[in-house]
Each structure stands twice: as structure tokens, then as C-alpha cells.
Please model this.
Amino acid sequence: MYSVYRSTARFTPRFAFSALALTATLSFPTMADDSQRIDQLEQRLDSMQKQMTESSLEKVRLNGFFSTGYTRANNDAGYDEATEQSDLETLSLFGLQSTFSLSRNTDAVLQLVSRGSEDWDTELEWGYLRHQFSNGSELRAGKMRLPLFMESETLEIGYGQPWARPPEAVYDPVPVRSYLGADATYTINLSGSSIQTRAFAGHLDDDAASLGQTVNVELRNITGLTANWTNYLWTFRGVYAHAEATIGGTPPLGDEEKTEFMGLGLSYDDGSWLLMSELTRVEVDGFYQDTDSAYITLGYRVKEVTPYVTASWVESQDNYERDGTPLEVLDVRRQAYSLGFRWDMTTSVAMKVDWTHARGFGKTTGGLIGNQLDALAGNPGGRFDSTDVYTVRLDAAF
Amino acid sequence: MAIRRVSVPALLIALCLLSSVSRAELVIIGHHGGPDSITVQQVKDIYLNRSSRMPDGQRVVAFQLPAGNSMRDEFNDLITERNDAWLKSFWSRQVLTGKGHPPREVSSANSMKSVVSSTLGSIGYLDSTLVDDSVKVLLTPEP
Model:
């Protein structure tokens, strides 16, 4: 992380001089006070480094993340778009994030992401201005991640997550990620714990995949509130958001429909044991499915390896609204069980191996794209009752 | 072969001295302009991004030794109670979600001493045998 501001042109001449002096010193290893001189030079180098980090160079910070992975399923049901064909694109992405300090308490944050699933087109995922006040509050404005989930902020940063992929049951029913707007956050630090509340408002207009098509999703008048309590071991979270949704498709799935999102989250991390759980509800008037979902993940770190198990469930609550129409294929009932591990191979690189078994679709397609397209094509007999998905994934952060 | 007689008490004293000199003990150090002491919990809060201030209210600048250094392992055992893999993943999340930046890494114990002694609000850690007057010892954590 420091390499960015170490390699600066301004620093080069002095650095070169020190390096030269160091080399010169090192070439006479027999001299008695050499180690002392090396120490002195080292100290000078470090104080120069310090000056660098504290001066102009901290004005820009550059970070990035990268993921790639291999997915394959035992059939074409389509869990996370996995099929019997091996796939490398879905999990591959590259992200670049830079933070520009405008003043001591104000900065601009930019995140660009290229995804293999979108032909590596680069997209501005975040672009916002942030101001921090000394009383613990913070204001942001611009394009930001919709803070619906516990892992919303690290949604695409696989390195920051324990799993091979966030549990689909909870993370999939919301097909959009970032909105344009503003938020205000207030943090109260108590002794040994902290409470954070955030209010947000804005607008979202983006494309999403639905039934094999790209459809436009517009969320107007988004307003919401999140609350978070943590004692750095346990974390509890609650979220409520409201918007009017217009969702495209043939036929259109909604026109300015009242949309609500509710979620509860719980996590525990003591350095060895890891527990995460979220319970969410999406309610959209009209054809778009209302879903209740939940997952629970339990993991245990053994040095660099963290095995985990996840159980998740999703079920649509408004199947009657689509009864007798082709949109019945949107009905969903599904359970999924994952067994996997994260292995921190080297500093900044983690590998994940995961086996997920999904079942319990009832009379529905299980909300899986392969099954949905089969049913739409008039081939309901081709429906798969379960699926097994195998994933190997590499995540890096730098 | 002539064997010099060494009295048993003298030998014991010598051994004690030797062991006290060579026993690498972790100490938390700070700038002379900072507080005189700090608790394990306060150090932990600083190194796990829960607090950005020293006990006296100064904005803190934390330093750490590189991975693989035995004092860093000792520090992780006694203070953060987290391993390097956990810390790396934790800090990536903090950095990429804009919540903060990890303690600055210095290359050696000598560098640690020099940056801590020259940075206001600094905190770092060191092998007790390497401490000198340029820095202030704030805490010797009990193993």
C-alpha cells in the first residue's frame, strides 16, 4: 500500500544519493563502525520516508482489487449463471480506487471497475466527495454503493470476504449496486463499542439482467436509514429503504411501484470464530417478485485457512400476482448449502474453494436463469430440481 | 587443562544478567511529547482502527514492524490477538471502504526508534533491549 507514495519523482535524487552512500558503505564490510553508519543511513532514509508520507504525497492514495475464478455446475440450472460449461468470466473483475485529499477533512473517492461478465467495460462504480466533521459525523455526495447489506461496501472486493461469493439468496434479489445521491453518517464512540447511523437519499438508473435480457431499472426517491452497533466482536445492523421502482422487460415488470427493503444483520468475529447472518425482505408492487431471504455462515480460522459452511434460503411471497402469466417463472423458492474454505496464500492474495448445493425449488424455477429460460421456451419438463456448483476463486487486494 | 574456579553466586549473577540482557521483551514506545503510559486496550484500539487518538488526546500516528519480525508476532499475540492474514484482510476492507489506513510499516527496529522519536503523537513497539533515551516506554505488556 505504501509503494504508491514511495515511488515519487521528487524523492528520487535524494533517494539515489542515499542508496549510493549505502552501497559504498556496504562495499567495505570490514570497517568496524559500518553497522553504525548503516543504521544512521537507515534512519535518514526513514525520516525522509516519513516526510514524504506526511507531505504532498498523502494527497493521492491508490488501491486496487482483482478477482478471477473458475465455476462449473453439474447441470444447466443456472445458479449464479453457472452451467456445465466451465466459466472464467463471471467471477473475474478488476477494480481501481483512488482517494484524493482535498483538505485535511475532505476527500474525493473514485472507484473504477472492469468486469469480465460485461466484456471488461470500465465503469465508474463510485465517485463521491466526502467531508468529515470533528464531532464524528460525515457527509458524502455523489455516486455511492447502496448500503442495503452488511457487505454492500465490499460487494465486489472478494479479498475482503470470507466466501467464494456472497450468499445469492440474500444478495441476488436486488439487481443494482450503486446510486447517485447523498448520505449523512453519525458515529458515537462509547467505551468499547460504537453506534453508527446513516441516512441516505438519491436516485438510481442502471441496467440489470432479467430472464436473459438486459432491462432498465430506475429507482426514484430512494430514502433509507441504517443503524449499526458493534463492540468489535459482535455487530448488529438494521436497515430500511424506500423507493419507487420502474423496471423494464417484456412485459415491463413495474412502473413507479412502491418498493421497500428491510434487513437485519448479525456478525461475530473474534479472530478465530466467524459468524455472519442476514435476514432481508424486498417488497415491490407489481410483477417483480417480493422475496424473503436469509443466510447464516459459520467459519473457523486455522492459521491461514478458514473453512466455512453457509446455509441460505429465499422465497417469493407474492406468487399470486403472477399466477397464470408467463412471469410465473419469477416465482422462487430455494435453499442452498455451501461448504468451502478461504486460504490466505500470501500477503494480499486469497484463494477460495467452494461447493454449493441448491435444492428445494418446490414448483418454482428456483429463481435460476437456466430453469427460467427453459420454462419460457415451453419446456417445463426440462426443469432441474437441484444443482451443484463448484468454484475456485482467487482474490487480491493491493 | 586448567579450570578456573568460579564461585556459584557469581555464576548465578552472571547468568541472571545475561538472561535479562538477552530476553527479548516487547515494549510499547512513544514520542517524548506524548502520554507517560497507555493500556493494552488503548494500544489495541489504535492498531485495530477503533481509535485515532492517544490517551492524551493527540492525533495518533502508529507504526509497525514488517511481517516476519519476531516482535511483530509478539505484538500480534499480546496486543491485537489477530494473525497477519486476518489483519491484512481487515485493513484491505478498511482502506477500500474509506475507513482508515493501516499503521505505517518501518523496515527495522532502528527505523522504528528513529521515526517514533521524531514524530509527534507517534506510537510503536520494540524489543526492550533496543530501547534508548530517544523514545519513551509507555507499556510493557505482560505475556
Summary: The interface with chain B takes residues 1-2, 39, 42-43, 45-47, 50, 53, 61, 63, 65, 97, 99, 109, 130, 153-154, 157, 159-160, 189, 192, 194, 232, 271, 301, 303-304, 344, 347-348, 350, 397 of chain A (CB under 8 Å). Confidence is low (pLDDT under 50) at residues 1-29 of chain A. The radius of gyration of chain A is 25 Å. Residues 99 and 109 of chain A are 5 Å apart (CA to CA).
